[in-house]
Amino acid sequence: MSSLEQKEGWIWMNGEFVEWHDARIHILTHTLHYGSGVFEGERAYNGRIFKMTEHHQRLHESAAMLDFTLPYNVDELNEAAMELLKRNNLQNAYLRPVAWHGAESLGVASGKNKVHVAIAAWEWGSYFAGNTGLKLMWSDWMRPAPNMSPVRAKANGQYITGTLSKNKAERMGFHDALMLDYRGYVAECTGANIFMARNGILYTPIADCFLNGITRKTVIELACNHNITVEERHILPDEIPSMDEIFVTGSAAEVQPVTLIAEHEFPIGPVTTKMQEEYHKLVTGGING
Ligand code: PMP
Fold it and tell me: Does 193 share its domain with 107?
């Protein structure tokens, strides 16, 4: 069975560059038991990391929401990420910064545990080409209220309902699952935000109980720059069949058309195509952020 462990190259770990196979943690690592870590997912295009500073700021904000502080500031993380790309000779890559609590003590509280930080990066080309659209099913799980979980943090412990939803979706022949929130409004997919277009207007749920994605914010800006009206509002699942087009956004997913939600089919329409093209132009033409 192939494994990411078998890759070769350098990983930045706690301020040093270590060989890929040496980037290891102990079995009694706090975060492995209690999900007390945070992470990021970011992409490099032509050697440049799109919105790098925003990602590393969000890593800090996520840590703060989980009651801890990273021992490296945003500039240090930026420098580490750029040096990592160079050392690994990567141009088009996915980067995974992660911060976790060590094995100093094993109890629910994390305050006595050292905070570790690492960044891994590996080649991952853009998957715009040849895409035929995502097929989504409804998730059985809901995004919780902001006082039930630190919903705005990109925190690893929070992904368990996403994992369960996506496992079921894949078992049933779908690509991903679409989740409602605790009020029954459309929320997001397991690792991407959602947009819908009807009569040329773009709708997206208000990010008040799920991750306000960096790609989501970028696409809203791009749409506004191209005179496409964007309405952020609560969206009921009953409204989905009346939409002309649907797409999802994320640093990994980029802008991906959705062609099926449960039994409802959608074409890949002009708004989706425009947003895909504009996003592609922006990420490949941008500078380290
Ligand atoms: N929601 C969730 C749950 C995610 O994991 C992601 C991916 N980070 C997103 C939305 C999209 O966020 P971004 O555009 O910042 O990658």
Answer: no
